[in-house]
Design a protein that fits this description.
single chain; 18 helices; globular
Amino acid sequence: WAAILFFAHLGTMGFLAGTYVPRMFREVAEANDLNGRMLDLEEDIDGADGVEHSDSWSGRFLSWMIRGTYRVMILGGSSTIDSENRGLEEEGGMEDYNYYDVTGTNDFADMMLLLGISSLVALVISTLALGFMIRHAQFLIKFALFFNIGATALFAIGALFLSPFAAIMGIFLTGLTVYYAYVVWGRIPFAACNLASATTAVKANLGLAPLAYSSLIFMLGWSIWWMITFVSTMYVAGNCDGQGNCQNEPSGWLVFALLLSYHWTFQVIKNVVHVTVAGTVGTWWFVPTEAASFCSHAVRDSWLRSVTNSFGSICLGSLLVAIVEAAKNMVRNLRESDDGGGIFLCIAECLLSLLQDVLEYFNQWAFVFVGVYGYPFVHAGKNVMELFKTRGWTTIITDNLASGVLSMVSAGVGLITGLISLAIAHSQGMVFGDEVGASAASFFIGFIIGTVLTSTLMTLVSSAVNTVIVCYAEAPQEFQTNHPNLSEDMRSAWRQAWPVDFNY
């Protein structure tokens, strides 16, 4: 039923987009002279009299979005921008709008070239990073711990120049980070073996990477579609005119439903990838011959199961998180609107954030069982928690050492990609923005591309780490049979960390 409800909600969003988006754009176009100047539009918007404006957060947000919509419509073409510049130049005001008076090649082709090169560099480096992580997992985990200690220590030192309270908080965070490193230091071999095994499984089935990258495209496309649908629906529900002046306050339930739609779809896209990775690693664990190539049967079959037999479970688990996320967004917006009850809304937001973390933590393990064994979502959650409770491994899953390494690797690849992007931009004379910000812009482009693409690949490793823990709890003998070298390292490390709980 969850899958049916999910597709029904997508159909509803499609209906809203097809009905309200054309109406909004038509009315916006009719209400404004598309050949007018931007300054005239600002005067029309901000100087309008006799029109009621909503003071609520949703009213202000909607007015801002509609203004932005017809600004894009008006200034979207190069001919319009050119006419604006010519008008400003005739009035002697061009010196204040010198955005295009820069050296270099500052055009769309250069931007696309830099994006393409940065993407290629990030893909190559992030793939090579998988092999480095397999060989140096322990070193990376230790380095990540020391890096966190150093970062908090620098924060504490910097806070000394700000305020005594900030300094105290910095010192407290530094001490807490040092204590955490001390507590988990003996478990580093265990975390390193998990990370190495998970990375080996992902590297053997790199066909998972295009799936993860394509999920980014789907998320971006959904975000754009949802935003347009949201604005147009609020436009109609608020009885707005083409200049963003609204007579009615849209229903809070309507806003909640639209927010729920966004978060639900976003969670489903993300969890389809997670379940696919779990199924692939499970096949690699039990039948490695079917999960040993880029386009292995394991990747294809796991993805097909995730979008067919297991899709209902994915939709159900994703819906639980989406409800909490939507409610948290509503509470945050109410708190930021300063309508009173700030302390209670702040407490409610904190509680919802905590509940969201709990649900996401539960889902990440339940979806492993969904992917590996095809269990329904409710049964999967019960089985995985019963498994850890029976084995006495509750403390094991609280150690999230691998995530620090994955974040550090993502940031490192982003930094390298940013520097390469900067070097390419300088060597080719590419300039984006003014002279002062040209270097920062090219570095920022490379850094963002590198970090995002590497983080996407690292999410596969994170899902694989969870799957390795579950599979080792369920079937350690199969691991010994199919991957003896990794199994020996795992057994030795886990016995060292937990000599009482593990007796394999």
